[in-house]
Structures are given as structure tokens and as C-alpha cells.
Amino acid sequence: MPAYPGVDRFVDAFDKLVVQPRRSRSRVPVVLLHEPGGGDAGRRIVAGLRSRMRGRSEVLAPHAHIPQIPDGADPPPLHLFELITNQLRETMPPGTGELHLHSYRLLRSVVTAPALDGLMERRHTELRNHCYAQHRQWSPMAQALWWLGGRDQANGGTLLELLWNFVAGPLFQRLPRALYGRRANRRMLGKARSPRWYARWVRQQQGSPPTDFFRSALDLVQGELVNEPERMDRVLMQAVLSDLDRACRTRLLDPWRRRRTSRFVLLFDEAGHEDSRVQRFLRELRSAVDDLRCTSVFAVAGGVRSLAARIPDIHATGLAQAGAELINIERRGMPPDQPTGLVVPVAEGPEDDQAAVYWLGRWPTLVTPSPRWGPGAEMAGALGAATLALAVAGALVLVPDTWNRAKDDPCQGSTFLGTDGHCVGVGEGSAGFGKGPSEQAVRAVLEQIERQNEEVDGELAGRPAGDPRPGRRTVVYFGPLTGGKDAEDPVRGGTFAELRGIAVAQRHINAQALRSGERVPLRVLAANAGDRFKDAPAVAERIVELAASDPTIAGVVGFGQSRRKTYEAMRILDEAGIPMVGTSGTADELLQQGTHYYQTAATDARAAELMAAFTSGAKITAGGRPVHRVSLVADTTDAYSNSLAASFRASYGPGRTDVLLYTPTDAPEPEPVPGALGGRPVPTVEDLAREICRAVSAEPRTAVVWSARASQFQLFLAEISRMSGDCPKLSVLAGDDVTNALMEDQRPWDHFKGLSLFYVSHGFAPTLAARSPEAAAFLAAYDRAYGGDRSARSKAMREDGHVALAWDALRYLAEGIDQAWRTTGGHDSRLDRGLVQGVLYQGLGGGGFDGATGRIDAHGAASGGRLTENKLLAVLRGTDSGPVTELLCGVVTRGDERTTWGPEKGRKLPCP
Length: 912
What we know:
Blueprint: H1 7-18, E1 30-34, H2 41-54, E2 63-66, H3 77-90, H4 102-111, H5 120-138, H6 140-148, H7 159-189, H8 197-206, H9 213-216, H10 222-225, H11 229-247, H12 255-258, E3 264-268, H13 277-292, E4 297-304, E5 313-315, H14 319-332, E6 341-345, H15 354-362, H16 375-398, E7 415-417, E8 423-427, H17 440-461, E9 473-479, H18 495-516, E10 522-528, H19 536-549, E11 553-558, H20 564-575, E12 580-582, E13 597-598, H21 604-617, E14 629-634, H22 639-652, E15 657-661, E16 680-681, H23 685-698, E17 702-706, H24 710-722, E18 730-734, H25 739-742, H26 748-751, E19 755-761, H27 765-768, H28 773-786, H29 792-799, H30 801-822, H31 833-842, E20 849-851, E21 854-856, E22 873-877, E23 884-893, E24 896-898, E25 900-901, E26 909-910
Parallel strand pairs: 1-4, 1-6, 2-3, 3-4, 5-6, 9-10, 9-11, 11-12, 12-13, 14-15, 14-17, 15-16, 17-18, 18-19
Antiparallel strand pairs: 7-8, 8-10, 19-22, 20-21, 22-23, 23-24, 25-26
């Protein structure tokens, strides 16, 4: 393998795509190695890829290699198909069985059939007979049956053979031929409600669905397609791809198929110019892969001498970027409507890429999964297992009461399997939730909460029966404790940080309660709402059921992500009369879901007003100049993003705002929210980066306002860095969700060096500690619990709003429970959820409290609202040494309100 710069990353991506498991595959673009300055770099790379798959002693993956076709040569239409299919059959790895291409063989027989004469009513029967005769040439079973049927008069049979044919011919010849015709119809046409690819193709050609395969195939015979080679390529290509996709689908009693773990790879030495035979073939291949959503084929072509503008392509700057594109496809799948080709420029140059040389030396061949048992042993094991299963089933039928016994519960009773296969519901500590290595940090916090619950129960167990001190009450934390399949962040977003805030707040509250005897100690249960709250409504129903049987449940805290499923869950809890206190949820619509919800964080409308004021007053674009125009990035399927973006546009003004609408392919709720923000849709993150780069290049005083999620921000910066030659500097003002990216080991400006990042923050306890005793208490509690964790992530959490907001939310609910207990006159049995809701609805005594995130005006709905209207908010600037406060507005503590912002020695601007 030649060591061109970046070839190790490209080959690594190639290897991963070739051996990618079938269930996680998506379609893959055709890789076109383009040599702008000539040379044979592409051919040498193709040769290296071929040697990787051939291995040292045996073939490691099925592949076909198509050598260069001389200029001016135009081989027959079937030449390439025969070359490819024969090589794929010959390169099937040991233990994977024989490759059967039934649809291709059938259509090959059709397109090579001689011109059919005679009555039109009989021509389809003649075509079927011709195809069956071709079928007998490669099917030993069909040939043996035909031989058993004997010869008839037309084939020169003797009198004895004629008599035998008269008796046995219907059974061994005509019946198998009729069954072959029925099987061909089923394979090519399918059922009326679920037609196969051929039926859909014919319908596009003729306008009506076919009723018989051989009747519809009459216009494909050789005489009809002599002057239409592209049409022949099209139908044969779809036949081959459908066969290859079908060949990768496992069957229950076929261990050979289960070993087909690799894609089929097509390697072309020379693609040639845009009208060459190989280029025509590749165009049909790309279109067919897109039409059929074929996931089993991966093609690489070298020597692309001219790029045809007939089909859009993805353009990479080199092998390294191409490898990154392919790795992204391997991890996240190919987005719909993505171009079907990836153009990679390669050129001759000094082969001094030492990293590539070292990597290729360590991994000289493709590494494929190695099954432990051979196909025969696996078949014997499967038969043995089936026999054992039948024996066990018989025993279960004979043993009485077997079916009435309780079934094993993989989620340990109180939880249940959710949308993504994780256990969701309500659990004690970490019981029943994620157990993977990526979820250990979350489990550690849940186990800490579980230990604190046990400590409270242990303290209360020793009290006498008539003790006047209050007993414990239960609070449920409601959040996404497990992530989706293959999610990089096991809980996505700020859930881990919120859990830490809940844990330290519970410890602080219980220490005060057990010491004084005048406060209510708290037990905390964890409710897993599933990845991005996908299972939130069902989990809310489970909380309602639990609350009906457990009167100690006093309320719920959480709801840290503003999503439509979150709203639905809140309505369920509100109808059941369960008090709710929000943590880091910010959408204005949260307060509209019921009168039992109280918000701790500032709303999106308030955050958007501050962002608009900061954008208008600060000089944040390149060269320290004011912002002239804004590119606003929003996801209209996400309630949080749509709420923040719509409020910002209304505050800043639509005349200076260009709205770009981008929705990731894995969006949990792909349809836009009702009343979604209008704007220009952008299909991919690459297109989003290109649009913004173009806007900044045209007007350097353009700033980006990012209202989408943090998980997409990192991908966006990676794309921007690839095209940074056109926009080397970029100023971004982001919503509070982007702080989730700041808690990772790799910070956003590490992805793009020209980034100037400003972001909204709900928490800045280190800044408030000197002025707010509550902020100082929060920091002391956090340091006692996690001071031993010296990681950059833990340090970032100490300054992040998610932890402090969770602290304030639990303190809010705990204060309501304490005041409700005092109204009972010390009668613990009278303290219930209805009394807690009454206190929260009327408002906490004293009008609220000073929290770790600023003053919490908990004056209640009866006193004017269920949120803090002038909640403290900041805009911070991210730097390598830590965040720098650029704007701070709102109430810090009682009597300390920030009403202006601006530089220390410059002109002050009023807070909105």
C-alpha cells in the first residue's frame, strides 16, 4: 500500500466499512480517486486495497477487481457484469458458502434470449422455457430432474424414451418448470402490497404494475435492447445489488450465511473519462444503490480522469478528509439525499508520511471477524440446541403451574425496557439502569444517592414511635439516565452534571434536617426517561402509579431538556397532582403544561433578550468590530431550539437575521413543532458549515447565533475547520445547551482554532461565592463530594449551570416540604403532596431564597407566577484559562441586582 499523506486514515475507514455489522450499515458513497495532475496514484491505492482483502493465505472479504479498459474500447454490456459476478463468487471467504445470484441469472437469461417469434400469447411461455433451460446449466438439481424426465421426440428420443417421457415428463420436467416460473414471479414481483424492486421499476417504465414477470420481460430480450445499453445496465445493476443485499441476510438454519460479515467490494483500476464504459457503469451503480438503499456494496474507483457534472458529489480535500467522511458514515449512517459519490484528489508526491508507513506496517491486511466454530459444527450445535429446546418445552408443558410463574425481569421489577433497549422507569439508586463501561460515571452518582438514602433510613430507624421530628419524604429525579444506541455521551446533555447537583443537595439538606430536627429529610429515587426523554410519558405513568401507593412521594425534580415528550410527561404528572420543580429546562412552553410545575432556570425568552442585547452592544466579530448581521442556526423539531431561536429573532429583529434550519438525522421527533420558526432548510451539517462560511466570507461582521444542541455543535466546527481557508475566523454566540460541550475533555476551540465562542450560562457559583452564602455553601458541598476528582470535566462542572440549577431545584422543593410540615403543627401524618402543592402555589415564605444561581423569587402562582422573572443570567467568553464574564444581568441576592453590563472602564449598557 503506497504511503500517501492521510492514507492510513482512509484505509482505516475503508477497513471499518468493509467489516461493519449488517444491522448498523447504511449505504456508502462510491469513492472516486481523482488525479488532477495525472499519474497512477489512484491505481496504486486500489491495488493496495485489493492486497488487503486477499490476505496472506486466504481471501478475507469478497471483492471484484476490474482492470483498466483500453481507451476507445467498449466491451459488450454483459462484460463488466460477468467479470464482477464471477469474481465475487470466486472470492467468497472460506466458510461463507456459495454466492447465488438468482435475480441476476434470471435477467441475464432474459436479456440474452434470442428474438422470439410466433404468437404474442405464447411468447412469454417461450421466454420462460428459455430461462429454465439456462437455469438448468448451473443448477445440478434442475438438470438431474430434467434427465430423469427423458427425451421427447423433438430431442431425438427413441421409442422407449418417448414412452418414459410421456409418463415421467410431467412430473420431472413440466412441473419443475412451472414451479420455476412461479418462483420467478414471486422473487421479481413480490406481493401486490409489498412489490419487489423489479415491479416498481416496470411500473415506472410502463405506468402500470406487472401481473406476470415473463410477460413484462419480453421487451428486455436482446433484440429490443441492442440500442439501449444504459437501460440494460440499469436493470442488470438493480438485479445484482438486490441479490447481494439478500445474500447478506442471515437465515435461521444457514450457518454459512451468518459468516457473511463483510461488504462486497468493487475495485476499479481506471474509471476513465466521463463517457467511458466504467464511468457509465459507476453512474448506474450509484443510482441503483440510492434507489434500493443497498448497504452491502462498497466501490472504489481510481483513475477518474474527468468528473461528470451529471450527478452531485461530496468533494474531499484529500485522503485524510475522505477517511473522516467515511468514519462519520460508519458511525452515524449516510444521511438521506446525500450525494452518492465521494471525490478524493490524489497526486504523486514524496512518500514521507511516517505515521501512515507505521500504521500500514502494523496492520498490513484487513482484519475480519473470526468465528469460533465452523459451519458444520454450528449446524450440529443448532440442531442440538433445537432438540434441547423441544425437550424443555415438553417438560414445561407437563409440569403444572409453569406458565403461571413470574417471568424473569431483565429490568428488575420497577423498571421496564424502553425505546432504545435500556431499562427505563423508577429505580432505587442505580438498580436496573445502564451497566456498560460508558455509564460507570452515572452509576457512581446513583450509587452515592442510594448510600445517602440508606443513611437516612438508618438514622430514622432508631427513633421512638412518638418522636415529634418529621419522617423522611421521597423526591423523584426525572431525567434521561441512559443514552441511545452508540451514543458518544451515555446520558446526552447535562444529565450527569444534574445528578451530581442532586446528590450534593440531598446530602446538604439531610445533614441540616437530621441535625436540627426541624426540617424534613429526603430520600431520592431516580426515574430514567430514556434517551432524550423518548420514554418520558410511560415513565410518568409509572411515577403516578408509584405515588398512588406511596404517600411519602412529595414531588418530582428534573425535566432538564425541553422536548415534546417532556411536555406530555409533565401533563400526566400535573393531572395526578404531583408538584414538579424544573432544573435546567428553559423553554417558555414548560410553564404552560400545568399549574403544578415551577421553573428554576431563566426562560428562553429572557435568555434571547440578553443574547440580542449582547449581539447589538458587543464588538465580537473579527477585528473587534460590531455585529452587522446574524446567521441564526435552529432545529425546528427541537422545542428548546425553536423556542430560543424564535425569541432571539423577535428581540434582535428579522431584518438583520438569516435563519438556517438544520435537523440532525437522528432527531428523536423528526417533525417540526407546531408553529415552527420559518427559515432556509439546510439538509446536512456540511451544507450548514458551507452556508455560514459563505456568509462570513461575504460579510466579515457576521456572527453565528447557535440555538441548536451542543451535540451538533462539535460536528459543525469539524466541518468549518475543513473549509477554514475561506473563513479563518468565526464568532459564535450560543445558548446554554452548548455548555454540555464545554464539560468534555476536548473543548470546541480545539476543533477550530479561529473560533471566538460566547455562550449563555445559568450558573457561576465561583463568581457569586463572595456575595452569596448559598453559592459558597454549594461550592463547599461540591468540593467535599468531588474534590478528589481532579479531571478537567469535574472542574468544568463546578462552574457549570446544570449542577447549580439541580442544587437550587431540590432546595426549592425541600423548602416547600419544610414549610408544609410546619403548617401541620408537627403532625407528620398530615404532610402530603396536596399540602406541598398548596405551599408552592401560594409562594414560599419570605418571597423566595438566595440560590447558587442567584435569587429565586418563589412567590408562587397565587402571587403572580411560577418563575423568577429577573433571573440572573450571564454571557461568558470561553478561553483556554477558563470562562470570562462579558455580561451579567439579574438579581444576585436580595438587595443586589445587576442592571447594567459592559467593560469595567467603558460605557455601561442597560440590561434588558
